[in-house]
Amino acid sequence: MDIYKKLGVQTLINAVDTYTIIGGSTMPDEVINAMVDASKHFVNIDQLQRKAGERIASLTKNEGAYITSGASAGLAISTAACITGTDPAKVEQLPDTSHLKNEVIIHRCQRNGYDHAIRQVGVKLVEIGNVDITHTWQLENAITDKTACIVYFMASTFSKGALPLNEVIKIGKKYSIPIIVDAAAQLPPVENLWKYTHMGADMVVFSGGKTLRGPQASGVVLGKQELIEACKVNGSPNHSLGRSMKVGKEEIVGLLAAIERYVNLDHRKIMNQLEAMVSYIQKKLSFPGITVTRLFPGPVGQTYPRALVHFSRESKHSAINVKEKLEDGDPCIIVGLTEDKSGIIINPLNLQDNEVDIILNRITQILNNDE
């Protein structure tokens, strides 16, 4: 914390989610120690990527793995891999996709800010369906000899109107079109690290700096070895589209340590701890006009609970007002807000035990103030 004090940067209590804008997550000692150790030596980056990728693939029950500088970089590099394969001339040509397969199919209902990572490769996004429904014939009709891949965003926030992933995979296999799944924040459960590839997805992208608690500037592409090899030639240290998405030796080793740690955690115990935090919040916050309920699943469909604090019209305070006062206090506390702005959401995923009481005491102080 000393470095932040020196810079005059305020630290936060994260009761909202593993958002990049507030630093993702915190790294455990195993990850920090691995990164410090990695920083002390020179290595061949290609060899390190290969060896770390082999270990991660084994840990996650996949054919191959490629470490990136984040999930967005993973989307860009995996898209590039589908266009170029391991052909050095095609790798050199990007982001000029003239005379190459340069169309990427995406659900209209799944268009979002993260698809910029795909577009920067130089491709044209071909939308299918509408915001309410998509039919299988629409996906099949969108496939042409220019189709490089199909990208599917796995978050529950993008599920409405989309075809089920298994249907997309079935059609992709029929026409030999690779399927890339963005599963950046889809942990827990731990089984998701191999679920989508075992379903038939060709590559799946995860963030390293969210629930895995690896370096914030890290991500991983899991999938078929042939496409992982194509990711490697499109990534740093090669002079390619991914050169600007450099991942250092510290991030490579740090993410490996994070994944080794994560797959060996007692996930049932962690779930019980999160449930206990939510129950504790429900027990402690008892005020007129306020109800506290267990909210499940997580923000994008993850299998963990949150606490929803709902403010009725009879309450002297509004959710927006309480959220603002939590953020304006010391320490600054970041909580979520419901879509209708009638409640705040306390996410226990990143909280330490002592931070739960800090949050509850602050909320109690705010609610006891009639101003």
Automatic annotation (TrEMBL):
Its cofactor is pyridoxal 5'-phosphate. One of its GO terms (molecular function) is L-seryl-tRNA(Sec) selenium transferase activity. Transmembrane segments: none annotated. The modification N6-(pyridoxal phosphate)lysine is found at residue 210. The keyword Heme does not apply. It comes from the Bacteria. The keyword Glycoprotein does not apply. Keywords: Pyridoxal phosphate. InterPro entries: PyrdxlP-dep_Trfase, PyrdxlP-dep_Trfase_major, SelA-like. Belongs to the SelA family. This is Aminotransferase class V domain-containing protein. It comes from Novibacillus thermophilus. The lineage of its organism: Bacteria, Bacillati, Bacillota, Bacilli, Bacillales.
